[in-house]
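We emphasize that the prediction below concerns an isolated chain of 488 residues; any contacts that depend on oligomerization or on bound cofactors are therefore not represented. The input was used exactly as deposited, without trimming of termini.
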Amino acid sequence: MGVQMSSLLLYDVGSTYSKVTAIRRGEGGLEFLGRAQHPTTLEDITAGLEGGRRVLNDEAAGATEAASVLASSSAAGGLRMVAMGYMPKVTAKAAKEVAMNAGARVLEVVSHDEPAEYRLEVLREIRPDIILLAGGTDGGESESLAENAGLIARAKLSAKVIIAGNTAAQPEAARILDEAGVAYVRVGNVMPTIHDLNVRPARQAIHTEFIRQITRAPGLARLAGLVDGGEVVPTPAAILMGAELLAGGTYNQDGVGGLLVLDIGGATTDVHSVIPELGALKPEERGLVINNDKQVAYRTVEGNLGLRVSASGIVEAVGPAGVLTLRNRLKNIEAPVCPDEKEAEQLTDYAAFLEKETDHLPENDWERELEPALAAAALETALKRHAGYWVTEYNPVLGLAPGSPVGRDLRGVKWVIGVGGFFTHHSREEGLKVLRGIFANPGYSLLPEAPEFCIDDQYLLYAIGLMGGKCPDEALTFAKNYFEMESI
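Result of the prediction step, given as a token string:
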């Protein structure tokens, strides 16, 4: 049952800009009143938020007279996390899934087969904010959890430890940390069986620590003071919450089915995919060890692909010829480009310039044509890294033959949503052209076969995710109307 409220203010505080969205609850449901943004002021977060509110009030009088305030933030940066476990690949997989959208960055993964002194050195050098202590299925291997707890105790860190391994071995690990005065929390095993990942409890523990960090960070403590209940959600989590609500629906209302969210920013390009039907798979259908292609929700982050801070990463990923070919494709010129040395150098220099001048806006036709081309290059690269692919050669080790699908199969996904500054600040037609362009040549990737495209031109998906936790049915109806989607 959702909460009762007359109106909402929804903040999203980024490292560069703070966004303010106003939503009113009327007889016909939730109504969008307007949005505004203002440069983030980390030394006093309220200055930037008040700036956004003033802009919004100028455009829609009374819009910010809210009865309830919700917020997300990516301005504090992610918690520095180290994962310790038993098997390296399993620990890495669990750590990545736990950290996804929870406000943490996995800096290192160490396993039991690495020397104890090496593991201790990693802890002392990185000095993480949080340690995921995993290892062993329930009733399985039990020694690694206690041994790694001992190493954490020896390291004398101020990190918070999340004990998320074999439940039978957790009491001994907790006793060791207790005696050393190390803060910890026990949660369910992240991998109770070899078929399943149970990431929600550990992810929630990270989220709790993320909120605690925000309340200690200069300026950001004020944000938690403004929010109902003091809960500030990591921005990627808010985006995923919105995507999951749209895809899976609620108890009372169907969702729209499988969807992709392509989120491009100045520093990173994120791809979220939600495939609700995968939740009905039986353990034996998931494979011996669960992997990404069988997860209902999955997110990948390309930290070197962004339109400003990571612009050079785009050019490096696809080459000057790739960017210019995409530029021509968007102009309906299909011929590939072989740029001369001068043109390639000009493009490389421009990308380096964007990394230094992150507030720069295109000033001439050449720059204006490059902006969507760079966006398309980043999105297409990130999407194809996220998606599975068709095998093209025999692989006798894995038993794969040409024509076999491998990885996350997105062919049945219907909806694709474009999110981020590019889609907010460019026309809807240009955004749709970019999205259609990156799906025009799937190659060997398992991309949606008949996608329908939506543009989040008001940057509301984060707000939909935040509202979904308060009034899910109304938020879902609002989202369907906003994106003009129909249920499955």
